Structure formats: structure tokens, C-alpha cells
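Ticket 4471: requesting a sanity check on a complex prediction with biotin. Repro inputs:
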Amino acid sequence: MTDRFALLQILADGHFHSGEVLGDRLGVTRAAIWKQLRGLESLGLNIHAVRGRGYCLAQPIEFLQTEQIRGLLAPSVRECLPLLDVFHEIDSTNTYLKTRAAQGVASGAVCLAEWQRAGRGRQGRVWVSPFGCNLYLSLLWRFAAGPASLAGLSLAVGVALVQALRDCVDADFGLKWPNDLLWRGRKLGGILVEIAGESSGPSHAIIGMGLNIRMPDDAAGEIGQPWVDLYRISREQPSRNALAAAVLNRLVAAMQAFESQGLKAFLDAWRALDVTAGKAVQLHLATETVDGHAHGIDDDGALLIRVGNDLRRYASGEISLRMTS
Ligand code: BTN
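Returned C-alpha cells:
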């Protein structure tokens, strides 16, 4: 562990610690502590410094722990997850699993990180990933069939994510096609599914999800859209380890159901969570924008939009709600 993470382990309790005590515990000077504290701010953490009291994190940190997460998994799920790596820092948990997949790591490999230096969102966007406060999780799943059979997989993942959240927090979560996790129109989480393989199989999917649990104010300034976190929804901070386990429990069950039944097993649940059905929307495509009314999804997971008298079908794109209806 590098020094700044040793310092963070002490500050994680959210209490004040003087520079002198921190220096003594880590065997470095107060000046060195001060320098490390500056470095912590680059992780997206807010630190309070109060004369006479010392330093304190604006919010305590519950570190992610492999053994704790494993202990909270259903036994049948635990058996399906041969690798569960937790990193303090990483470029992107999806990128890490992409490399591991190419090295032949088994299906069910999981990667979690406290901080992503280069978290990736859909459409090439950045996923704001400050340290120790949200969930950044990726799962590798291998399929016998080719990539074409995985077209609706990200919708199934959205349903699994909502189920996992409902296992932990009572709130009205919803989904926006294809797979944005929303609460009252604000983005709570996102899903990035990256698929590769031979056209006739086998194939694999790297399923990444980011879930806002308690976003520090400074990092929040970098998010370019209305957002929310679980803390702001419930005024409580659910355990990150428990949430990680709940997500994995639901996600593995979803992968197994998708393997045996495909998207069919998720259609009713997805439609019940659809927040745009019947609403005036704009679909943003690479070369055009389509204005119409969302009409849910077809059985393959494609978005249906009514434009005048036409019912049009779209397999990709981004939708936003229109202000007028
Ligand atoms: C979106 O744009 O809505 C998708 C966001 C996906 C973010 C997650 S965080 C864990 C995983 N690693 C990444 O780099 N991205 C995904």
C-alpha cells in the first residue's frame, strides 16, 4: 500500500487527527503528512483542516473488502466467482477485465475499485469516479453463443441492478433506455457492457456498473447532467460491501437466466421500470435527432418511438425527455 492509502486508512473513521499523531503513526514528518493530504484531494476527496484539531475527511470511508463481500454472497453465487479483485486505484475496472479476459481468466471474474483514474461511460464519456464513496464494479461473463445473441444483455443488467438496489434501499428506481439507472429523473448509476467474440461463438461480455452512493461535492461539479446518489435519496449511507454483494448476487442470477432464456426473462420487469414510456422524447443518433413519443421496447430490446403515424424501431442511440409533450 502506498503512503497516501495508509494515511487514508487512518482518516477513514471520519474523525479529526492531528498532523503530529498522523506523522507519528506513519513514521513521517508533519510536512510529509501535509503533502500527502494535498495528494488526497486529487482523488476527489474533500478534507477539512481545523487549527488545533487537525485533519478530517468530509465523509468517512468504508473500504471495500474482498472477504467481506464474499461472505455476503449466496453460496451458489460465490461458486461462480473465481476471482474478486479489489483495487485502491485503477484506470478502469472494465479495462482491467478486458486485459484479464484476453489472458484467459475464467468467467465470473470480478473487479472493484475505490478510485478509477479513467472511468469510462457510454459514448466515450468520462465516468466521474472519486475515491471510496461510490461503487465501480465490473464482471466478466463468458457465453457459448456469439455476440449477436447478447444484444439485449445490457437491459437485463439494468433490471438486475434495480433488483439489487431494492434489496438494500426502499425507493422508486427506474430505467431509461437502454440502461441508465434513474431516480426521479436524475442519474443514479450507469452500465457499460462491452462485448467481444467470434460471430458463431464463443463470446464474452464485460459488464461494468457505476453506482453513486455518496458523491463528494467537489467531484459532483464534474458531472455534466442531473444526478443523485443513494445518500441524497435516503439520508443514509448503505454499506458499500453489502451493496457490492447484492449487485453480484442479482447479476450472476441474471447472467444465468439470460444464458438459458435470453432477454425474454427480463422484458416484463424492464417494461415495468421504463420511465420514458408514453413521454415526449428526443433520440440522439450519430447523424440525426428524432423527436417523438417513446413507446417502450420490442421483444429484442430495441426502442420504439412513435413519430407522427409511424412506429420506428431503434437499436442504438441516446434518449432525453423533451420539455414539451
Ligand atoms: C454510463 O455512461 O452510463 C455508463 C457508466 C459505467 C461506469 C462503470 S464504473 C465501473 C466500470 N468501469 C468503467 O470504466 N466504467 C464502468
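Notes from triage: The radius of gyration is 21 Å. Leaving this open until the requester confirms.
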